[in-house]
Each structure stands twice: as structure tokens, then as C-alpha cells.
Design brief:
Layout: H1 2-10, H2 12-30, H3 34-46, H4 49-60, H5 67-97
Helix pairs in contact: 3-5, 4-5
Length: about 100
Amino acid sequence: MESIFNFFVVHREIIYFIILSVFVGIEVIGGVPTVLHTPLMSGANAIHGVVIVGAIYVMLHINPDDYLALILGFLAVLLGTLNVVGGFVVTDRMLEMFKKK
């Protein structure tokens, strides 16, 4: 319990920054009109390619004996890839709705 308290004391500024960014993100997304929400979200999902590249970079520079880091890195690559592919699938399906038959 003491180590958890010390972690919060040492990283107080980062925790404040994360909490503030959550509130700002909620306000920004809440202000987006419904019509624009899906295209913006599919585009944001495509940006997760940065997560994939970052996870691969981190996995290349960790100790091969650190199985927890390897598993977390693999999950980051897997979930980031699913998010990118899902973003493009949603965008494609949306664009299909506007094509003339």
C-alpha cells in the first residue's frame, strides 16, 4: 500500500495531466455533431498505426527474458492492428452508403 501511495506522490503531475486530458477529450468529442462522429472516429482509429509502430519499436528494445513486456507488446500490436483494420472497414461501409446503385 505504501508503494502505491509513493507512486502517486512521485508521478502526481502526470496523473493530473491524464485526468485533465480525459476531461478535455470528453468535451471535444461531446461537441462533435452526430453526422461527423463516425467519420472522425474511423479516421482516429486509423491513426492507431502509430501505436503499432511504437509497440514494435518497444518490443525490439526489451530484454527477451521479460515475458510480461513481450506479452503486453504483442497485445498492443494485435489490438492496434484490429483497430486500424476496423477503422478502415467502418469507413468503407460508410462510403458504400453514399454510392449510387
